[in-house]
C-alpha cells in the first residue's frame, strides 16, 4: 500500500526521481530496526531487535571501557608531565645565594689582575650583619696571604676577589651559603651569618708550592687523622699565633689565648665539620684543607 502512495507522490511531483532521497527516510539504525508489526513475523522481529540491542549495548560498554582506560593513561601521562614542569619551574625559581661585590677604590694604573691560582696578600676587616667586628688583619698589622680559587678560603672570597688590581679596595657581602653556612665558626661567627668584608689587595705573586697539610698532620702516615693528631696541630698553630700576636703587640692576643684554652672544643668543632661519616677519624677524602703536593 505504501509503495502505491510513493508512486502517486512521484507522479504528482513530476520531476522527482522514483527512488527515495538518500537522506529521507533516514536509514534504519542496526541497533533499532523499524517495527513492521504483524503476528509471528513481528515476534521474530522483536526478538532480533532485542538481540541486536543487547549486542549494541555490550559494544557501547566495551567502547566506553576502552575509552576510559585510554583517558586514564593519558591523564596519568599528563599529570606526570605537569609534575616535571612544576618541579623544573620550582628549581629554576629557587633563590640562589648571591654574592654582592662593590668596588670602593680602583687605581688608575692596573697592569695585572688577580686570577685563580695566584697568591694574594690582603688586608681585611670582617663584620657581621649588625656591625660587630669579628676579625681584622689591620688590627693585627699582619696581612693575610692565600692562594686564590683552590679552597683555602671561604667560597665568597674565592669568587669575589678575581680580576682585582693591586691597591684596589672592595666590599664583599657574603651570604651564609658562601661563608660558614648554618654551623658558623666557633663562638665568633654564628650559624647562618651574612658576612661583610672590606678588603684591600696588597700584592699578587706566583703561587708557591702548596703545603700538603694532611700529610703534615698525619704523623703515623695511616692516611687518616685522629683526634690526637688534630689536637696537636691545633695546639702548635694557636701557640704560634699567640706568639706572633704578642711580638707584634696586636690587640687579639687575649682572644688567641682563650682559643688555646678551649682548643679541645675547637678540635670537636673540626671533627663535627670534617668527619662526615662520624667514625672518629678524618680520612684523606673527607679532609677539606690543602692536601696535594704541587710541582
Automatic annotation (TrEMBL):
<keyword id="KW-0413">Isomerase</keyword>
<feature type="region of interest" description="Disordered">
    <location>
        <begin position="17"/>
        <end position="40"/>
    </location>
</feature>
<feature type="domain" description="EF-hand">
    <location>
        <begin position="262"/>
        <end position="295"/>
    </location>
</feature>
<dbReference type="GO" id="GO:0005509">
    <property type="term" value="F:calcium ion binding"/>
</dbReference>
<keyword id="KW-0256">Endoplasmic reticulum</keyword>
<protein>
    <recommendedName>
        <fullName>peptidylprolyl isomerase</fullName>
        <ecNumber>5.2.1.8</ecNumber>
    </recommendedName>
</protein>
<dbReference type="GO" id="GO:0003755">
    <property type="term" value="F:peptidyl-prolyl cis-trans isomerase activity"/>
</dbReference>
<dbReference type="InterPro" id="IPR052273">
    <property type="entry name" value="PPIase_FKBP"/>
</dbReference>
<dbReference type="InterPro" id="IPR018247">
    <property type="entry name" value="EF_Hand_1_Ca_BS"/>
</dbReference>
<keyword id="KW-0677">Repeat</keyword>
<dbReference type="Pfam" id="PF13499">
    <property type="entry name" value="EF-hand_7"/>
</dbReference>
<feature type="compositionally biased region" description="Pro residues">
    <location>
        <begin position="22"/>
        <end position="32"/>
    </location>
</feature>
<keyword id="KW-0732">Signal</keyword>
<dbReference type="InterPro" id="IPR011992">
    <property type="entry name" value="EF-hand-dom_pair"/>
</dbReference>
<keyword id="KW-0325">Glycoprotein</keyword>
<dbReference type="InterPro" id="IPR046357">
    <property type="entry name" value="PPIase_dom_sf"/>
</dbReference>
<dbReference type="InterPro" id="IPR002048">
    <property type="entry name" value="EF_hand_dom"/>
</dbReference>
<dbReference type="InterPro" id="IPR001179">
    <property type="entry name" value="PPIase_FKBP_dom"/>
</dbReference>
<dbReference type="GO" id="GO:0005783">
    <property type="term" value="C:endoplasmic reticulum"/>
</dbReference>
<feature type="domain" description="PPIase FKBP-type">
    <location>
        <begin position="117"/>
        <end position="205"/>
    </location>
</feature>
<keyword id="KW-0697">Rotamase</keyword>
<keyword id="KW-0106">Calcium</keyword>
<feature type="domain" description="EF-hand">
    <location>
        <begin position="205"/>
        <end position="240"/>
    </location>
</feature>
<dbReference type="Pfam" id="PF00254">
    <property type="entry name" value="FKBP_C"/>
</dbReference>
Amino acid at each position: 500500500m505504501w509503495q502505491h502512495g510513493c508512486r502517486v507522490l512521484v507522479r504528482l511531483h513530476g520531476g522527482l526521481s522514483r527512488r527515495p532521497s538518500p537522506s529521507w527516510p533516514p536509514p534504519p539504525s542496526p541497533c533499532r530496526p523499524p517495527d513492521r508489526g504483524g503476528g509471528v513475523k513481528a515476534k521474530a522481529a522483536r526478538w532480533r531487535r532485542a538481540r541486536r540491542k543487547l549486542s549494541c549495548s555490550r559494544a557501547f560498554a566495551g567502547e566506553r571501557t576502552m575509552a576510559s582506560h585510554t583517558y586514564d593513561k593519558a591523564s596519568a601521562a599528563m599529570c606526570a608531565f605537569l609534575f616535571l614542569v612544576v618541579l623544573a619551574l620550582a628549581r629554576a625559581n629557587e633563590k640562589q645565594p648571591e654574592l654582592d661585590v662593590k668596588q670602593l677604590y680602583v687605581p688608575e694604573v692596573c697592569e695585572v689582575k688577580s686570577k685563580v691560582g695566584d697568591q694574594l696578600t690582603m688586608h681585611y676587616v670582617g663584620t657581621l650583619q649588625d656591625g660587630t667586628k669579628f676579625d681584622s688583619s689591620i688590627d693585627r698589622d699582619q696581612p693575610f696571604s692565600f692562594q686564590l680559587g683552590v679552597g683555602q678560603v671561604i667560597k665568597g672570597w674565592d669568587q669575589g676577589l678575581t680580576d682585582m688590581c693591586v691597591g684596589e679596595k672592595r666590599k664583599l657581602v657574603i651570604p651564609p651559603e658562601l661563608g660558614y653556612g648554618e654551623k658558623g665558626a666557633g663562638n665568633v661567627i654564628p650559624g647562618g651569618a651574612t658576612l661583610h668584608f672590606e678588603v684591600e689587595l696588597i700584592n699578587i705573586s706566583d703561587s708557591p708550592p702548596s703545603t700538603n697539610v694532611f700529610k703534615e698532620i698525619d704523623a703515623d702516615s695511616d692516611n687518616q687523622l685522629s683526634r690526637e693528631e688534630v689536637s696537636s696541630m691545633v695546639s702548635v698553630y694557636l701557640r704560634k699565633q699567640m706568639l706572633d700576636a704578642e711580638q707584634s703587640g696586636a690587640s687579639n692576643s687575649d682572644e688567641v689565648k682563650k682559643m688555646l684554652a678551649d682548643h679541645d672544643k675547637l678540635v670537636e668543632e673540626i671533627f663535627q665539620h670534617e668527619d662526615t661519616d662520624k667514625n672518629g677519624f678524618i680520612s684523606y677524602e673527607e679532609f677539606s684543607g690543602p692536601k696535594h703536593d704541587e710541582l
